[in-house]
Amino acid sequence: MRRGREALTFWLFVGPFAAGLLLFTYVPIGWSAYLSLFDAHNTVAPTEFVGFDNYVDVLTDRAFLDSLGTFTVFAAFIIPTTVVLSLGLALLVNRIPIAQVFFRSVFFLPFACSYVVAALIWKMSLFSGVDSGVANTVLGWFGVEPQAWVGTVDPPLYWVVLVTVRLWLQLGFYMILFIAALQRIPRHLYEAAWIDGASPGWQTFRYITLPGLRGALVAVLTLNLINAYQAFDEFYNVLGDSRGYAPFARPPLVYLYYNSLGSGGQDLGRGSAGALVLALVIALATLLSGKVSRRRR
Amino acid sequence: MGAEIGRRGFLVVAGLLGLSACGSDTGRGGSGDGTLRHWYHAYGEDGVQDAVRRYAAAYPGAKVEVQWNPGDYDSKVVTALQNSAVPDVFEAQVKVDWVRQKQVVPLDDLLGDTRDDFVRSLLDSQTVDGRLYGIPQAIDTQVLYYRPSLLSKAGVTPPRTVDELIDAAKRVNAGGVRGFFAGNDGGVNVLTAPLLWSAGLDFLSADGKAPGFDDPRAATVFGKLRELHQSGALLLGAPTDWSDPGAFVDGLTAMQWTGLWNLPKIRAAHGDDIGVLPFPRLDSRGAESVPVGAYSAMVNARSGNVDAAKAYVKWLWVEKTEYQTEFATAFGAHLPARRSLAAKTGDGPAKDVVGFVTEGGRIANPARWSSRANTALTDAVSRIAREGAEPTGELRAALQTARDEIARLDR
């Protein structure tokens, strides 16, 4: 009797969520895997089985490989930058004796801003290519010629726009994760270290703070890695338009969006194959980063 | 306690929940009461929505519900066509895939003796395998706007060849006013087709069975776009894109490639100091051109009322010429899709454009030119023009993709 009631309670709480997960996540993933083996132009119930043709197709498509390559480089740059800057911010804000809540909120606030809105502000106001754009005005004070930020390919100035908007949006969130982890490191460890004569700067950070942050570090690394490969919003809004997207700095998801769902020509089989390849790349990269951080211990 | 709840029990419950969720789907189903649902994308011009609702309300044959669709309308249509009876009538540009999968119905019988009155290239653009699938609603076109005062101040004449365009852009580029604007990607997306036409080439061959740019002249003409990019005379990074008159209106550029639809705003800003031109030709083997395209009214094959939907389309887009004229000309400048109506509209620049369309109008989005082939070509053009890649090799890759796509359509 008690056992039955416990089971009922369990299902009452877990059931809706589990059903949602099954229906809206696992079924679509399975369906996607099924579609990827068919020629599924404009249909979700395809009939023409093509085996692994779609996979061969995306894996030999230079545009897709380019986008995977570009975003591996992007991840290799944005992840360390984010970790260092957000950890730095966390250490500073955590140490500050007054108005800590204020500073925490100030740095966290951008996270509440939409990627789309921020991307448009960056593109149309801060880094607008006209002489009166904010960045160009600042350059003007130093006598530098105005730049077409988003439009310049050589040197690739568009990365300045894309990287700064992403950092502005996400640093606060990772800072909060680090602050939470910092506050969980027991104070007595620092006191013991001080008594043992450890110098309060680098030595304490290296042997007490950093090991205490390991859990948070792994979380930040993983989230960052997935986010880097799944980049879409700010890239699409800065570099894309209704007609298409330039062949550079094109995230894998933008590539899949245009090629698989693009106007009037849905190719769901190829899109599904690409999505699964991307999922595999993310999974492998995550495993790899997990392995590396474990070996460090 | 997790152990007592077996994996099987979990799946059964989850499965039941899933089934019940499926059962409550109400989004489909035809309109049993005979109401026709008519979809439009969200036109930017004020007044269009009111007008099309007014037309729908005036239809005597059935009740028509108009749905206005902001956002990514094209994708929404593609999704709806796969399995939904809604909309009955919608505007779009026909795609070969839709015809192959029998998602849209032929509309040849609606035209009757008015067929010859429609601009030929528009009908061609909505025709697949000899049958017409969309009734053109209006003509959208793009032209080269310029400021005669700025050109004459720099001592240049309005450009009639690609070289003259590059030269003019360089010479008027001064004092914060750039020479030419064709979008923040430097014209890659919007000028690819006009550049091909300027060299006497096209996306596809005349019969649509092969790519139309398998020719060394393609490398030459895209090299010209590279030259323009290197000239420093192109406006890049403007706050608005090519489709908006902003850059030209605000005096950021002396020439801009943009839609005819912007004529009213441009006129309000510069008065008589505007001129329009078709895209120039490369040399004597090419031709001046303007892209011609437009949404057409189409009928969903899954509609519960195909005949009623066809009758409504015939009434609105074939018979009611006063509505067609108002729709095309009263809200931003378009041209009516019929020559007899177009001839009566406009003065000054608009009149010139009627001539460009009749003489040099080319299909902007051929039904047999797929979005994947288009991406491959514009990628190549982007690398050539913006990054200085070697044209021949880039175009060879695009040709291969285009051939694969054409082969797929005929499989």
From TrEMBL, chain A:
For this entry, the protein name equals Multiple sugar transport system permease protein
Q: Which domain of life is it from?
A: Bacteria
Q: Which residues cross the membrane?
A: 7-29, 71-94, 101-122, 157-182, 213-232, 268-288
State the annotated membrane topology for this chain.
Answer: Multi-pass membrane protein
State the family it belongs to.
Answer: Belongs to the binding-protein-dependent transport system permease family.
- What's in the keyword line of the UniProt record? Cell membrane, Membrane, Sugar transport, Transmembrane, Transmembrane helix, Transport
Chief place of localization: membrane
- The answer to whether the entry has keyword Protein transport is no
Q: Key word Nucleotide-binding present in the record?
A: no
GO annotations of cellular component type: plasma membrane
Give the SUPFAM superfamilies listed for this entry.
MetI-like
| Gene Ontology BP terms | transmembrane transport
Q: Which PROSITE patterns match?
A: ABC_TM1
- Subcellular localization, as worded in the UniProt entry: Cell membrane
Domain ABC transmembrane type-1 span(s) in chain numbering: 68-289
UniProtKB/TrEMBL annotation, chain B:
* UniProt superkingdom: Bacteria
UniProt record, GO biological process: maltodextrin transmembrane transport; maltose transport
Cite the GO molecular-function annotations of the record: maltose binding
The reply to whether rRNA-binding figures as a keyword in the UniProt entry is: no
Sorted alphabetically, which keywords does the UniProt record give?
Signal, Sugar transport, Transport
Q: Mind naming one GO cellular-component term on file for this protein?
A: ATP-binding cassette (ABC) transporter complex, substrate-binding subunit-containing
**Alphabetized InterPro entries for the sequence:** SBP
Indicate yes or no for the key word Transport: yes
Family the UniProt entry places it in: Belongs to the bacterial solute-binding protein 1 family.
- The molecule here is called Multiple sugar transport system substrate-binding protein
Q: Which organism is it from?
A: Actinokineospora auranticolor
What phylogenetic lineage does the species belong to?
A: Bacteria, Bacillati, Actinomycetota, Actinomycetes, Pseudonocardiales
